[in-house]
Amino acid sequence: MAPLRSTIDIASPPDLVWELISRFEHWPTWGLSVTAVEPPAGQVRVGTAGRVKTVLGLWVPFEVTSVIEGESWDWKVAGIPATGHRVEPLENGCRVTFTAPPWAPFYLPVLSRSLALLERATSRPRGRN
User: Are strands 72-77 and 59-68 parallel, antiparallel or unpaired?
Assistant: First the structure.
């Protein structure tokens, strides 16, 4: 079964969007279900492990399972395959797609809202850590 998808076109450069979705310190700005990340800084790499604090206040472990630099990354949360994150260049910005496992249709509204937050975050000034 194919993963479930939520997609948005963002009028920002793909490298900016990639930085926001691939650097841990930015996850709470766009990840609707993430309020904190440990490690608090760094970038997704295959095998990177840590934990995220959910909106329910629970800390759950994660591991990054695949990365194509500048394009996509996937992870497991609490040992379960979770969401995927994709950036595709367009003529005037990029298309961002978040995926969820086929058994998680309840998570599509979270992905959709997270994409809207990501789009908003691309218009805010930020520093590099």
Answer: antiparallel
pTM over 0.85? The answer is: yes
Query: Quick one: which of 117, 96, 108 has its CA closest to 32?
Result: 117
**Amino acid found at 72:** S
Q: What is the pLDDT of residues 49-103, one digit of tens each?
A: 999 999 999 999 999 999 999 999 999 999 999 999 999 999 999 999 999 999 9
